[in-house]
Amino acid sequence: MRRRGLPLLALTTVTALLAATAACQRASPAAAGPVRVRVAHVPSTLFAPLYVAEAKGYFEDAGLAVELNKVKTGQDAVPLAGTGKVDAVAAGFSAGLFNAMAKGVEVKVAASMGGSTGAHPSPTTLEGSRLLADSGELTRPEDLRGRKVAVAGGGGAAGGYQLDATLRSVGLTVKDVTVVNVAIPDMKNALANGGVDAAMAPAPFTTAMEADGTAKPLAVPPPGTTASGLVLGSRFDGTPGAAKFLTALRRAAADLQGDGAKSEEVLAALSRATGQSIEVLRATPPYRWTPDLAPDADQLTAQQRAYDTAGLLESAPLPPERLVARTTG
């Protein structure tokens, strides 16, 4: 007995289903491969979630192929994000960033990064000249009025905001001191030879200054002071890839809570990213990361206020809603 073929309607339906399945497979993330994400970063333990997510495979788990590109300053990379040459920038928030955003450069803040714990020792410390401290001329931050303070990048850099936040806690602002642009590795010598009276310095440089008798800690930024974060270009912001990228970073931030920031796996990841030895990193006080890495509207406002006070903003401070990305969670 001869078999009958499928009816024409059924055959047409099966063909259509097969074609649709093939199309779905071609369009699926698995078939298309991982989403490429290009990130410019200034190597620093501030951005530990970025390095931990890479080391632990969280980006790969999210279907992302993340490329980390080192830059000397975040300000150099912001225009690259605005034009789509990179997708994200992890860097300190300078006056230049806010000026660029006010001028229409298409970038937005998607996450905060390492913040001050407010505790001693601190990852960032306002160090005073030991010579002046021993003479009784500089024993508290209030004594800095009219004196010279070293800040890497000057008053318009992220360190300038950290200095302003520290001074405001004792009733001063950056207008009450003379800010001197000194590279971090040169701060110890500047203090030793009297070129500056104090320095806003990060660990582990603070440890070296204090150990050899060059400096004495005066104050630390108030808890929660955040001067850095993640900026997304507008072409990347709002995409599924951006959402997955932020999710992977938050997964890494969860690993950095409590003692997790000093785990051997985390220290190894930070050592590879920053070039610092594990021994130095183990002895360096960690920053603090909020588990959700959400942009801090109050800190964004305070940063602009500090730069405006210093006369470094080219227009009125922007409201937080003008600064924050669509992709933040």
Can you describe what's shown?
The chain is of the alpha/beta class. The chain is built from 15 helices and ten strands. The protein has helices spanning 8-27, 29-32, 48-55, 58-61, 74-82, 95-102, 130-134, 158-168, 187-192, 205-211, 240-255, 264-274, 278-283, 297-309, 320-323; strands at residues 35-41, 64-70, 88-92, 107-112, 124-129, 148-151, 178-181, 198-202, 215-219, 228-233. It has a five-stranded mixed β-sheet, with helices on both faces. Strands 7-6-8-5-9 form a five-stranded mixed β-sheet, with helices on both faces. The longest helix is centred in the first third of the chain and has 20 residues, at 8-27. The N and C termini lie far apart (65 Å). Mean pLDDT is 90; it is low at 1-30.
Unreliable parts? 1-30
Oligomer: single chain
**Rg from Cα:** 25 Å
Element string (H = helix, E = strand): HHEHHEHEHEEHEHEHEHEEHHHHH
| Count of alpha and pi helical runs | 15
**Arrangement of strands in the largest sheet:** 2-1-3-10-4
Fraction in helix: 40-55%
Major sheet: 5 strands, mixed
* Outline type: globular
Mean of residue pLDDT values: 90
Strand content: 15-25%
Topology:
Elements: H1 8-27, H2 29-32, E1 35-41, H3 48-55, H4 58-61, E2 64-70, H5 74-82, E3 88-92, H6 95-102, E4 107-112, E5 124-129, H7 130-134, E6 148-151, H8 158-168, E7 178-181, H9 187-192, E8 198-202, H10 205-211, E9 215-219, E10 228-233, H11 240-255, H12 264-274, H13 278-283, H14 297-309, H15 320-323
Parallel strand pairs: 1-2, 1-3, 6-7, 6-8
Antiparallel strand pairs: 3-10, 4-10, 5-8, 5-9
Helix pairs in contact: 3-11, 3-12, 8-14
